[in-house]
Amino acid sequence: MIRSSRADSRSVTSASPPGRNAIAQGTESPRTSVRGRPGATAVAAPSGPGSVPAPESPELPESPESPEPPVALAAGSGGGVLPASPPCPHPATTGRATASSAADSLAIDRAVPAPCLSVITVTSSSTLTRGPSRWFPRLLPVNIWVATQDIADDLSTLPDGLPVPDRKVYDGTGPLPGPPEEVEIWVPPLVPVPGIPGLLGRMGNLRLLQTVTAGVEPYLPHLPPKAVLCNARGVHDAGTAEWAVGAMIAMRRDFPGFVTAQARGEWTYHHTGVLADSTVLIVGYGSIGEALERRLAGFEVEIVRVARTARDNVHGQDELPALLPHADVVVLLVPATTSTAGLVDAEFLARMKDGALLVNAARGSVVDGDALLAELRAGRLRAALDVTPVEPLPSDHPLWTAPGVFITPHVAGSTPASVRRTRELVREQIIRHLTGRPLANMITGHY
């Protein structure tokens, strides 16, 4: 069971410094059914990012006998179910609209916010013209770059007749798959591609940048003004939390030392440390911190939670100097930002108790590498690192041979569970973008 550190702690929003922060996804509105009706006459396209804008339009007529404006549907689309429109600040006008193509005739009855939807009428010659303004889902294909072929394959079919995106795979190892100026959605790979500032500078049509990581630091400073940035908060929680528990146990029970002895064929019996009765200080208590706490529930440890500022049962980062001397294990889970760069400096490490373990599952930039090396060589602290000051860590880097350190090559979140959850998130986000529904994990305000 976990013993909470304090019951009188204060309140906070996140473990992040000022900038942008992730906000939760919104709710969905009911779906609207589409039924066939012969003799209808118009077809159209959508509003939302990348669509053709439309001027303000008058209210729609309320009776079937009134003239009927075109509705936003793609030419050639058949009957089925369309996702409902997202909320609009304008008053709704109840109206009846019709649409048809060479192959289909459709009728739609719904309450619509008349000023909010751009409509493009599709004529028999495929010429696009503007129609009355209303709000419907995107039904024309978009240009999207994705990180892997698996993600591209996941988008080969979409629900409710949504258009399949024009998908191109770009992992940063080859030439650009097309003009960046045409990209509306970009899902970059786990390892940042080269030349991100220049690449984003060319993406003037970008509307959604969906990362596959919780961190967004390579993209945030260079985000085009019309683009929305969303992270992958939650998809790596299980893997990262599991790695942190494993690293704690391995180091407290001296597993690396026993592995070395095994390679030499030596039986090196000795008492080791133990996780039970330890105080574990989590620095950066967000979704991964919560996942870590759940996994530590059976280890009979005391959990001390620290975030950027305080909230109930969570200490503020300004309290670290008083908390560090009492922690047996310090776990770093903060994002890489200007305010967390070098957070773990010589003063921070000096406040840790003798024999304490530093576990870094955050970013290498959070820790002063030289200060950590000094403590390791002195034998006063131990460390488990999934991230390092330079990645890949050069073979001649002194961290490899420092005593009391366990290093893995940034693999904490690299698990099948993370891959599955990433693919599910990306697919859902793109569907939300196409249908105008609220996105998950939007980075706004501060990060």
TrEMBL record:
<dbReference type="InterPro" id="IPR006140">
    <property type="entry name" value="D-isomer_DH_NAD-bd"/>
</dbReference>
<dbReference type="InterPro" id="IPR036291">
    <property type="entry name" value="NAD(P)-bd_dom_sf"/>
</dbReference>
<feature type="compositionally biased region" description="Low complexity">
    <location>
        <begin position="42"/>
        <end position="54"/>
    </location>
</feature>
<protein>
    <recommendedName>
        <fullName>D-isomer specific 2-hydroxyacid dehydrogenase NAD-binding domain-containing protein</fullName>
    </recommendedName>
</protein>
<feature type="region of interest" description="Disordered">
    <location>
        <begin position="1"/>
        <end position="97"/>
    </location>
</feature>
<feature type="domain" description="D-isomer specific 2-hydroxyacid dehydrogenase NAD-binding">
    <location>
        <begin position="246"/>
        <end position="412"/>
    </location>
</feature>
<keyword id="KW-0520">NAD</keyword>
<dbReference type="Pfam" id="PF02826">
    <property type="entry name" value="2-Hacid_dh_C"/>
</dbReference>
<dbReference type="InterPro" id="IPR029753">
    <property type="entry name" value="D-isomer_DH_CS"/>
</dbReference>
<keyword id="KW-0560">Oxidoreductase</keyword>
